[in-house]
Write a structure and sequence with these properties.
4 strands; about 35% helix
Length: about 80
């Protein structure tokens, strides 16, 4: 049986996946990851520059704060 930390990690991964799918983003549009902070975990949408403006108003999803950033070199293949 999974411990609480593992369940929490799985739940966060599921939230990230649902966010990505709800925005209809593809595998070459960027990446999504969790970033811990003092205020609580944030979901980071790291997107291609051409998508930043379109998604810059996404600030929350299922109770998690969301931050939109441009991809950094090496994040996209």
């Amino acid at each position: 049986m999974a411990d609480q930390g593992e369940k929490s990690s799985i739940a966060r991964a599921s939230v990230r996946r649902r966010l990505w799918e709800s925005l209809d983003l593809g595998p070459h549009d960027g990446t999504v990851f969790r970033e811990p902070s003092e205020e609580g975990d944030r979901i980071i949408l790291s997107l291609r520059p051409s998508l930043i403006e379109k998604y810059r108003n996404v600030t929350e999803f299922e109770g998690f704060a969301v931050e939109v950033r441009p991809v950094t070199p090496g994040q996209l293949y």
